[in-house]
Amino acid sequence: MKKLSPFSRPISPAPPDYAAAGDLLRVFCVFMVAWYHIWQQSWLSPVLRIGAFALDMTSPVRAGYMFVDLMLLLSGFLLYLPYANDTQLPSRAFYQRRALRILPSYWLCLAVMLIFALAQPDFSGGDRLVRDLAAHLTFTHNLFEFSYTQTRLNVVLWTLAVEVQFYLILPVLAPAFKRRPMLCYLAMTGAALCFHRQWTEPMADTTLFVNRLPNMLDVYANGMLAAHLYAALARQRNRRGLIAALGTLACVAGAWGALRIVAAQSHISGYEPLRHGQLDHRWLFSLCGAAFLLGGSLSFTPIRRLCSNRAVRFLSGLSFNFYIWHQWLAVRLKAWRVPPYLAEANPNQAGEMPWQLHYTLACFLAALLAALLTTSLAEKPCAKWGRKRFGKRPS
Q1: How many C-beta neighbours within 10 Å does residue 33 have?
Q2: Could you tell me the residue ranges of all domains in the chain?
Q3: Phi and psi for 49 in degrees, rounded to 5?
Q4: Can you say how many angstroms the Cα of residue 52 is from the centroid of all Cα atoms in its chain?
Q5: pTM for this one?
Q6: What are the tens digits of pLDDT across the range 13-41?
Q7: Backbone φ and ψ of 56, nearest 5°
Q8: Contact by Cβ (8 Å): 225, 185
Q9: pLDDT tens across 194-252, in order?
Q10: Nearest partner of 300 among 21, 82, 4, judged by Cα
């Protein structure tokens, strides 16, 4: 009998332990955050022109930092999904897997950054660099100004500090969420709202607090609730057509809502107003991301195939290493005059073309190459060693 194509079964069941839209969401969010950081260095107009057609990406690029929230949303979804399916690992095995997943690439990145920091001609403040490194090694670097906004290592690594801090409470939080999902959801969202309104927003300078874990609890709550609903709905077989139709509507509505919020955020100017806007939009923005993630993963088979195919899964597998390298490489390439530019300094301010375009492409290609090398030479070998050392674990 001829094997059916996935497109011949438009309402095939969604696997409860795998959310297809997560692959596309991860790739898109990492790409947009990278584009934002590269645009900060190049000032290349983010309008894509193909003949008479023009796609204006100005709003999502100017507010590209917002997509970090959706990366954390996806993390909350994926971390909680095994609990929703009763396939969670014991705490020790969970921490072993997380360590094998992030530490090899993270330590390699820190080592390279440290070497370059020490080699800088203007290097000074050895004690501060030691404290900076210590904070990064303990994943507390988002708590201190010297290791967050003034770090000599890699500024984008603050997201890993938030992630690891969330790992510490997940084995206690997730079982409670499974027993009382709505109560825990309201408690997490309420705690984040209180931290927003009562602690962070009254501050004259919110720099050190806007991206701390308490201000992210509503984002993680939206991810965990979406995973809870997904695990339940994916097991439904009798109403697959209705679930797929509603999922598609939720996916479209979530994407539309998220882009509307990004457009509103992109028109805010000034550092403090930007941070306040991000705090004000965070819960609703991540809720829209959760609608896209949940709906897209439950939608019709062709849509799920668009969200998760071989190319998207390949890029998704590189996304972690692409993320931790892209911003540092963008700054370095510009300092190294790669590609060369005519201005004495700041070719972006001079509007120097075609340097702006060539530099943007070079940044993306360099980050992709770094991701390929790090994944092949550090992440995968360490994962293989971990499987031998600790035994095979469910994926």
Answers
A1: 23
A2: 18-389
A3: -115, 130
A4: 33
A5: 0.93
A6: 789 999 999 999 999 999 999 999 999 99
A7: -90, 110
A8: yes
A9: 999 999 999 999 999 999 999 999 999 999 999 999 999 999 888 889 999 999 999 99
A10: 21
